[in-house]
Amino acid sequence: MSSKCDGTTTPVNVIGILLRLESSRNCNSDQNSRILRDFVTREVNAFLWFSVIAITAVLINKVVALFRLWSKAKLLPGPPCPSFYGHSEVISRRNLTDLLNDSHKQYGPVVKLWLGPMQLLVSVKEPALIKEILLKAEDKLPLTGRVFRFAFGRSSLFASSFEKVQNRRQLLAEKLDQISFRRDNVVPAKAVDCSVGRVQDLMIEESIDCNKVSQHLAFTLLGCTLFGDAFLGWSKATIYEELLMMIAKDASFWASYKVTPFWNQGFWRYQRLCVKLKCLTQDIVQQYRKSCKPFSHCYSQNLHNEIKSTGVEVAFDIPSCPAAEMRNNGFFYGLNDHANPNEEPYGNIMGVMFHGCLTTASLIASILERLSSNPEIQEKINSELNSARKGSVKDNQKNVDNMPLLLATIYESARLLPAGPLLQRCSLKQDLVLKTGLTIPAGTLVVVPVKLVQMDNTSWGSNVNEFNPYRFLSKACNGTDTTQRTSLAGENAEDQGESSFVLNDPTGKIEFLPFGFGARACVGQKFIIQGVATLFASLLANYEIKLQSESKNGSKLSTNPSASQTLPNSKIVFVKRNF
């Protein structure tokens, strides 16, 4: 007999039997190996086929969504695309606001622009359409959420989806309304004194950069609001301010990466700055808690481990505490609830400081520039303040409501120079169907060119480019039975004499958008207006604000400079008033 496994013949004897047994074992081993190889091959092929089918399905879905987007976008008016990459090259060469202005003149109140083959931008300028869109589109693009997440971690106050931020926004609005309701606590008197003190410190130099002093004032105002008296005595406030501005400068750049750039050393340097800011935030919260209620110190091992892992060296001790102990401490109750494990501790607080400082500083800078170029408005506001003080307590916070010209100056400064040129909204899940029949696809970046809306002569009159706070005032004429109001929008201040004025509050008007509109409108609008008014009432009571060029050679600017003109010098000087 012979063995066929290896193709050889063995003799029929004892040795042959042993050889056949060994050959049989080898044959079985080879068969098992072939079976295993066949099994692995089939499994790998099945996995590869499944991967190919899955990737193909995803790509087909992307292509279908892309063609659906293109088909819906065809119905929207706008300039034709110069290339496959849309209008991105044109936008890089021109100012976007100017480009939108020209496009609206040519194509109407709704204009589309392509930022790329898959990113559509739609600009809306008609007030009625703006109101409809801002009421319907409650989300923001994911980039907005990434900016805050990269800098401060996950937050339930600054996410893109409105559903995720609705509860926290409502809670923050209630807190700010409580502060505004207690009129004597809108801006603590110590905060105003501290702000004036910082101005005096900055006046070591002959002149001060307008943006720099605005940043200081906004930071002090917001810090005192959040942390009370503890902030005024905090020795690390200057470091915190510098870190906050450094992080704000690069936040959008790092958030623009679709894939986290772990390979970039600059990214890790940025992350270390963010961790330092978090440590400082925890420190000031601890100081705030100590000023509210005595407690025993405890240390956060998790935070120290995080600092150690990122290589950050902190030159100060960082006391920590359980989040539950903060819940009964004034402003922070509920805003920093750590029950959600996916939310970064103190992320909401850092986000409020970040966003609040940038927007408030922009408003203060605009007011400083307008007042410095209009000294007669300063004097009228100072006279208004003196009149409001007569027969009442000398408390600026209680007098700002009786100072319509000061409030009108704030509104006019916000109109001429809003915090941002565009108001951005998005509907992440559903298409926006307008009453006009137009459909804006889901995921489209919808923008409102705030500057164009607030500089529209059909809404604001022929003198729309001029600084004229009287457009927000009416002349109160006391009649026999009624009080008549006469609008002063087109009149000059010199023509009004000593007449009393009534403020026409623009809040809620769709033509006035410095604080947004709809569900995503600024929750701190009332608080900021009152706080900034109190701050400037105190500043103007003690100082005259002048441009550097004016203080040196006595030259005076035009009474109503064009809003589009660049001021001759951004350096300002605070001159102490003589009492």
From TrEMBL:
Superkingdom, taxonomy of origin: Eukaryota
Q: Which GO terms describe its molecular function?
A: heme binding; iron ion binding; monooxygenase activity; oxidoreductase activity, acting on paired donors, with incorporation or reduction of molecular oxygen
CDD domains in UniProt: cytochrome_P450
Question: Would the keyword Transferase be found if you checked this record's keyword annotation?
Answer: no
> Where are its TM segments located?
46-67
In terms of InterPro entries, this protein maps to: Cyt_P450 (IPR001128), Cyt_P450_CS (IPR017972), Cytochrome_P450_Monoox (IPR050196)
Q: Does the keyword Ligase apply?
A: no
Alphabetically sorted, this entry's keywords are: Heme, Iron, Membrane, Metal-binding, Monooxygenase, Oxidoreductase, Transmembrane, Transmembrane helix
Q: Which family does it belong to?
A: Belongs to the cytochrome P450 family.
Protein name, entry field: Cytochrome P450 714B2
Q: What is the scientific name of the source organism? A: Cucurbita argyrosperma subsp. sororia
Gene behind this chain? Answer: CYP714B2
